[in-house]
Specification:
There is one protein chain. The strands form 2 sheets. This protein has a 4-stranded mixed sheet, with helices on one face. The protein has a two-stranded parallel sheet with strand order 5-6. A hairpin with a 2-residue loop joins strand 3 and strand 4. It contains 8 helices and 6 strands. By secondary structure, it is of the alpha/beta class. The chain has 2 domains: 4-79, Glutaredoxin (3-Layer(aba) Sandwich), CATH 3.40.30; 90-220, Up-down Bundle (Glutathione S-transferase Yfyf (Class Pi), Chain A, domain 2), CATH 1.20.1050. The radius of gyration is 17 Å and the shape is globular. The longest helix is centred in the middle third of the chain and has 33 residues, at 90-122. Helix 4 (90-122) runs parallel beside helix 6 (159-171).
Length: 222
């Protein structure tokens, strides 16, 4: 096995999703923090690895992969002892893929990034109510996904759970989850938090981003 290096920042939900996957697979790897404030992601060296200049980026024996969903699928497919985290059976895989696309397009981009980018880049602390409402709708969808499942894509943890927990535990900085309305989602979060590697891989970074959000003294506007 070649040397595995993950480049990222633990404030990033996609990076934390990959950290969860590494820990679940018990894979040895080197973690190299990228300082976005110092624009290290725009350096010539980083752009050669990832011209999209996003985090995370995975280096595997001189090969480079970016996008957390692609990275996790690759790690499980190449290094997993079995396919439990990313099933090979087509129908089961399709459900996992759907959840991954939901996290990427609806949760991360539509829910989190659309608020975080103006907040961090322009210090835009006034958040439209519709964006907060959209987060509530995301929670409702997740509750529905869990209607007949213990985890997001079935009865076992998959990489879909890693993606969704990393973003969910960031979104709560803007809108808390109402346990009375989303009991299954609340229980699922507790199950994920009970994983032996959860706190190191996701808990610490999630607490940092929620703390950052709370420090901004946000105002919800119509």
């Amino acid at each position: 096995m070649g040397k595995l290096i993950l480049y990222g920042i633990d404030l990033s939900p996609p990076v934390r999703a990959c950290l969860l996957a590494f820990k679940a697979l018990n894979l040895p790897f080197e973690y190299k923090p990228i300082d976005l404030m110092k624009l290290e992601h725009l350096s010539e060296a980083y752009l050669k690895m990832n011209p999209q200049h996003t985090v995370p980026t995975l280096e595997d024996d001189g090969n480079f992969i970016w996008d957390s969903h692609a990275i996790m699928a690759y790690l499980v497919s190449k290094y997993g002892k079995d396919d439990a985290l990313y099933p090979k059976e087509l129908l089961k895989r399709a459900v996992v893929d759907q959840r991954l696309h939901f996290e990427s397009g609806v949760m991360f981009q539509g829910g989190l990034r659309n608020i975080m980018t103006p907040l961090l880049v322009r210090n835009q602390t006034k958040i439209p109510q519709y964006q907060i409402d959209a987060i509530g709708e995301i929670y409702n969808f997740l509750e529905t996904f869990l209607k007949d499942n213990t985890y997001m894509a079935g009865e076992h943890v998959t990489i879909a759970d890693f993606s969704i927990i990393s973003t969910t535990t960031s979104l709560v900085g803007f809108k808390e989850i109402d346990a009375s309305k989303c009991p299954k989602l609340t229980a699922w979060i507790k199950r994920m938090q009970s994983l032996p590697y959860y706190q190191e891989a996701n808990g610490v970074g999630a607490a940092k981003i929620v703390g950052l959000i709370k420090s901004k003294q946000l105002t919800i506007v119509p």
